[in-house]
């Protein structure tokens, strides 16, 4: 009986110890669960990561802009749309697109200069026509004011005197401006003389002066 009592006491002590141990263990935090919850939290991006991501986005945006620029050039420049048999059906490189764009711009500059020269020539023609129109209007008005004046026929001698007076005036400037050292220099001087001394206003002044001179000789 004493042994049985002792064993029962020891079993009670062990049972109480196990109970205390389980209670203590239940009060200790579960580190495994905490680790699991920690890893499930959203990742917080650092300043360095944000900066790297912003730089990557900016670089991609820059490359997209450059690519769009080359695509626009290739669509605008006509020579880029033409098939280049030397490279086949391959896509045009950036260097070729730039070179074709430069060539096309130079072509446009030449065409613009050519058109400006044509416009300048047309303006001179318009100015000459306006002067002729004014002269003819004056002739018509003078004839309407003095209808009997036109009945007097002008002789061939008078016509020749008018022509001679005009040509003499032109030859004086021609002789003073033209050099006959070589045919090339002669050609250059002729064109220069025409531009300088054969302007519509200059010719008009010469003709008016000759007509006044002939008129003073006749009347």
UniProtKB/TrEMBL annotation:
Keyword tags: Activator, Coiled coil, Cytoplasm, DNA-binding, Nucleus, Phosphoprotein, Repressor, Transcription, Transcription regulation
Residue stretches making up the BHLH domain: 50-108
Molecular function GO labels: DNA-binding transcription factor activity, RNA polymerase II-specific; protein dimerization activity; RNA polymerase II cis-regulatory region sequence-specific DNA binding; RNA polymerase II-specific DNA-binding transcription factor binding
SUPFAM superfamilies, per the entry: HLH, helix-loop-helix DNA-binding domain (SSF47459)
SMART domains for this protein: HLH
Entry keyword Cytoplasm: yes
Sections of the chain in a coiled coil: 105-132
GO BP, sorted A to Z: positive regulation of transcription by RNA polymerase II
GO cellular component, one term: nucleoplasm
Cross-referenced InterPro entries: bHLH_dom (IPR011598), HLH_DNA-bd_sf (IPR036638), Max-like/E-box_TFs (IPR052207)
Function: Transcription regulator. Forms a sequence-specific DNA-binding protein complex with MAD1, MAD4, MNT, WBSCR14 and MLXIP which recognizes the core sequence 5'-CACGTG-3'. The TCFL4-MAD1, TCFL4-MAD4, TCFL4-WBSCR14 complexes are transcriptional repressors. Plays a role in transcriptional activation of glycolytic target genes. Involved in glucose-responsive gene regulation.
Protein name per the record: Max-like protein X
Lineage: Eukaryota, Metazoa, Chordata, Craniata, Vertebrata
């Amino acid at each position: 009986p004493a042994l049985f009592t002792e064993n029962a006491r020891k079993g009670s002590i062990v049972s109480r110890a196990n109970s205390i141990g389980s209670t203590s263990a239940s009060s200790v935090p579960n580190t495994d669960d905490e680790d699991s919850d920690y890893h499930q939290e959203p990742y917080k991006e650092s300043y360095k990561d944000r900066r790297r991501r912003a730089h990557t986005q900016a670089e991609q945006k820059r490359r997209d802009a450059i690519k769009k620029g080359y695509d626009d050039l290739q669509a605008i420049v006509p020579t880029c749309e033409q098939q280049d048999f030397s490279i086949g059906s391959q896509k045009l490189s950036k260097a070729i697109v730039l070179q074709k764009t430069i060539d096309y711009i130079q072509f446009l500059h030449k065409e613009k200069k050519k058109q400006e020269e044509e416009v300048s020539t047309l303006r001179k023609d318009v100015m000459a026509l306006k002067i002729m129109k004014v002269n003819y209007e004056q002739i018509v008005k003078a004839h309407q004011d003095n209808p009997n004046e036109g009945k007097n026929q002008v002789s061939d001698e008078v016509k020749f005197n008018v022509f001679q007076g005009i040509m003499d005036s032109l030859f004086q400037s021609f002789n003073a401006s033209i050099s006959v050292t070589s045919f090339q220099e002669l050609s250059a001087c002729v064109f220069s003389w025409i531009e300088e001394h054969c302007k519509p206003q200059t010719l008009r002044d010469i003709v008016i002066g000759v007509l006044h001179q002939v008129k003073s000789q006749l009347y």
